[in-house]
Amino acid sequence: MNALTVLISCPDQVGLVTNITRVLAAHQLNIIAMREFVDEANKSFFTRIACTGSLEDAEKLKEKLLENLPNAAEVNLITQQEKQIAVLVTKEYHCLAEILIKNQFKTLGAKVQCVIGNYESLRDFTEKLGIPYFYVDHANKDKSEFETEVKEIINQFEVDYLVLAKFMRILSADFVKDYAGKIINIHHSFLPAFIGANPYRQAFERGVKIIGATAHFVTDNLDEGPIITQHTNHVDHNFGVKEMVRAGKEIEKKVLLEALELIFEDRVFVSGNKTIVFK
User: Which residues does the UniProt record annotate as the domain ACT (predicted)?
Assistant: First the structure.
């Protein structure tokens, strides 16, 4: 029996679940899990359905589903689970290390095709794990030239997503447009309260009691794209700057890997500037 994931988003109306399940049953597909959500404010319907069965004609199934759904419906049929990714880095290793170790032991849910860095710092570590590392220097280049070089590398591979694992360069609107909905970023949740350099030192000096991290899709608005997942940790007066940084890195790793797992399992819908996440 083959596994099939069906993703549907469409305007809401009465009878959608009945129509969808009837079509799947007619194609001899057995539903083993189904999650749905209605955004009442926008009158939108979302569902993720895990099925088993022998799918002989995916296009015919998609066509039949669309016939039984409202206009403007989107249907995505997914049979290949393992995604292909490229990882962009600067100097910090903690998020990259988590990704590459899980990739090494085939527990990432995706395959890392390459790592691209604007410093050489992480080359040795990356190549020791058998992953190609590409260095693209940003110095004395305008953003367009730098990004063109990065895109030339990415386009050598079949890539489903770009993961910014503490990549400390602001991407242009043109670059983001080329990979719309496919770029995932991780940052500390101090933004916008603590922007700029040394956010953990700023947080320490302010005496914060909670630190956190946010994983989100990248859009034209800096650090304001649809949020995938967030977590926080409590801190207190015993935390110095070093302890704050250490705690921050741990939660960044946790949040990024959780977000990637959700995305690689096709559990995330984007709706405007929000996400629907079926855990």
Answer: 5-80
How many CA atoms lie less than 13 Å away from 173 in the CB half-sphere? Answer: 2
Tens of pLDDT, residue by residue over 66-99, are 999 999 999 999 987 799 999 999 999 999 999 9
Measured between alpha carbons, how far is 16 from 6 in angstroms, rounded to an integer?
Answer: 14
Tens digits of residue pLDDT in 153-207 = 999 999 999 999 999 999 999 999 999 999 999 988 765 577 777 888 888 888 8
Do 71 and 114 share a domain, yes or no? no
- Ramachandran class of 51: left when φ > 0, alpha when ψ lies in -120 to 50, beta otherwise: beta
Q: What is the CATH number of the domain that holds 256?
A: 3.40.50.170
pLDDT in tens, 21-68: 999 999 999 999 999 999 998 999 999 999 999 888 999 999 999 999
Domain boundary pick from 78, 96, 113: 78
CA–CA separation, 74 vs 82, rounded Å?
22
Which residues are registered as beta bridge partners of 45? 10, 38
Among 107, 131, 101, 98, which Cα is nearest to 117's? Answer: 131
Q: Are residues 143 and 21 in the same domain?
A: no
The tally of CA atoms less than 13 A away on the side-chain side of residue 255 is: 28
For position 97, what pLDDT does the model report? 98
pTM of the model: 0.92
H helix runs in 14-57, sequence order: 16-26
Where helices occur in the chain by DSSP H, the ranges are: 16-26, 58-67, 94-104, 123-128, 143-154, 173-178, 199-206, 241-264
Dist CA 6 CA 69 (whole Å): 14
